[in-house]
Structure formats: C-alpha cells, structure tokens
Write a structure and sequence with these properties.
The protein is mostly helical. It is 60% helix and 4% strand. It is built from 15 helices and four strands. The longest helix is centred in the N-terminal third of the chain and has 40 residues.
Length: 337
C-alpha cells in the first residue's frame, strides 16, 4: 500500500532546504549589518532619481521584517511537496523562471500604475476642483512594494493547489451537535452555512492569506502578479517555463556548494598530477585506456537525472512498505510539519 502520510524534514528536498537556509542567513545578515535598504524597490527615489535598476532583481532576495520571515519560511517548507512532484532540478528551474518574470512584470506594473494613478489624480484636480497646477511627480499607491519572495511564493501557491492532491476532507460544525433523531433530521435539512468544509490544504490557504495582507497595499502588487504568472504556468502559457532547465553545475552548487567545490578541486588536482596522455600513444604501447577516477564528477546531466530517479524509486519502494497511519495522526501532522 502506498504511503500517503507526509515525510518529515527535508527528505529528498535539497532545494527547499537550501532556500530556507539562504533566506535565514540573508535576513539575519541584513538585520545585523543594517543593510535592509539594499533590497527595497521604489520608483521614487531609487529608479527616478538614482537609476538603480539592479534593485528590480534584488528586492526578492530577502524579507525585512520578522512576520514576513515566519510566513515565508513556513510556506517554503510546505512547498517541498512541489519539489517532490517536479524533481529537485526542475523545481529550481521553475523557481528561477518565476523570479525573473515576477521581477520584470512587477516593475512594469508599478511604472504603469504609478503613471496612470498620478495622471488620474491630476485630471480630477483640474476638471472637478478647477485647480491648474504644474505637473509634479508624487509617490502614490504603486510607488513601492514590500521586499521578499512574495511573488515567487504566490506562483508556487497556484502550483501547490493544482499539482498536490487533497488527502482528506473534514467538516467543522458551527453549531451545537444534536443527539435525537428529530434533531438529526433537522440538522441534515439545514443549510450548509452551519458547517465549514475544509481539506488538508487549509493551513496553506490561511498562511498565504496572512502573507498577502501582512503589508497592506505594498504586498498586493507582487502577490497578484505572482498569482497571474502561476496560472499561466499551470496552463502552459508562460514562455520557457515548460522546457527550460537550469545548468547542472549551477544546480549542484546551489544544492551542496561545499561538495561541489571539493569535488571540483579534487578533479582539477587529479588532472594536474596525472596529466594528459595521447590516445595514439596508448594504443601504440598496447596499454589499455583506463577511465579516470574522477569521472563520476563529470557525468552529464542526463546521467545524473537517471541516478537521482533510481534513488527516488528506491525511496518510494521503502515508503510503500510503511503502513498508513490513522486519519487523526495525519491531521496532527498537518500542523506539525
């Protein structure tokens, strides 16, 4: 029987683990070093006056307040199921695509919204109040967004609801339970407004709603843009999100930088010590050509994917032999994980 209970921790989810560690380190570093202004994005003054366009791609790097950090890390941890669905390398590729699209589209929406809002206010002042004033740029609703990966999480939120199946449903009664047969008949004929139908996804919906409303209007723009991009990705209408894959060496470095650097240095050292031998000279001497010991470090991306897939199949087989726990334990695991 296939196990449907959640797996604790970061089992087979190295990308999720790396993201949680990076977000924690960045948030602490920016707070300790007082560099939170680096990840802020505002049309005025950073773009209009200072022309700091690099902020378009850095404002999603880290959050700047504690409440956003807790909500973001909680959602990243629960989105590990999406990584199990996609695979680690594919999951990191999707996150990269969402990050680029959210940065560009969010900046365009901010620029257009700021201009439209400003000229709407100017027209209202001129036509209704009959005030003729010079055009002066002002900071309005679309001027600034909250720093953090809210847009990426919003896109993954759509993927979570689409690709992660519902394990169970349950109801919460909003009225006192009835014991007699007559009361039960009345209860069955009563409207469904007295009960609340929920699934095991309801903690994700609640936490995401808190993240959406946590910073007022500053968090609405990236979240709404992320939801739109997530819908386009689900319907396979987002260019590049279906076939593009991140480089295998970038993926290895992101997942385990220490192992990647150690393997690379050892491979370079072996090459420098052993040197290169001509293929023709080896044949002339009648010596068999031996493969280098560091060959596994240079396996192509497809071979790596096959090895990872074999490991996943073995893990799935082990999970299939584990008995399914009762529904009550599954319900408690929803809050523990």
């Amino acid at each position: 029987m296939t196990q449907i209970t959640p797996i604790k921790g970061f089992t087979n989810t190295p990308v999720t683990q790396s993201i949680c560690v990076i977000i924690t380190l960045l948030a602490l570093s920016l707070s300790i070093l007082q560099l939170k202004h680096i990840v802020r994005l505002a049309i005025d003054p950073y773009i209009v006056e200072y022309s700091q366009y690099w902020r378009i791609f850095t404002f999603q790097a880290s959050v700047i307040n504690e409440s956003d950090y807790l909500l973001v890390v909680f959602l990243w941890f629960h989105f590990k199921n999406i990584e199990r669905f996609y695979g680690s390398r594919r999951y990191l590729s999707v996150i990269t695509i969402f990050a680029v699209y959210n940065a560009v589209v969010c900046f365009i929406v901010m620029c257009i919204g700021q201009l439209v809002s400003y000229y709407a206010v100017y027209v209202l002042k001129t036509l209704l109040l009959h005030r003729s004033s010079n055009i002066v740029y002002q900071s309005l609703l679309f001027n600034e967004v909250i720093p953090g990966p809210q847009g990426i999480i919003s896109s993954l939120y759509i993927c979570y609801g689409t690709y992660v199946p519902v394990s169970y449903h349950f109801k919460i009664l909003l009225s006192n339970p009835m014991n007699s047969d007559q009361d039960q008949e009345q209860q069955s004929t009563s409207s469904s407004s007295k009960e609340l139908n929920l699934t095991n996804h309801f903690p994700i919906h609640i936490i995401y709603t808190l993240l959406l409303l946590n910073n007022g209007t500053r968090s609405l723009i990236p979240c709404l843009v992320g939801l739109l991009l997530g819908k386009l990705h689900v319907y396979e209408l987002l260019p590049g999100s279906k076939n593009w894959m991140i480089n295998i060496y970038v993926f290895r470095f992101f997942v385990d930088p220490t192992k990647f650097v150690t393997t690379t240095i050892s491979s370079i050292g072996l090459r420098l010590r052993s040197g290169y031998q001509s293929l023709n000279s080896s044949r002339d001497q009648g010596q068999p050509i031996q493969q280098a010991e560091f060959l596994p470090a240079e396996v192509e991306g497809e071979d790596v994917e096959e090895i990872v897939e074999d490991g996943r199949q073995q893990a799935t087989q082990i999970r299939a032999e584990t008995p399914v726990r009762p529904l009550g334990s599954q319900f408690l695991d929803t809050f523990r994980n």
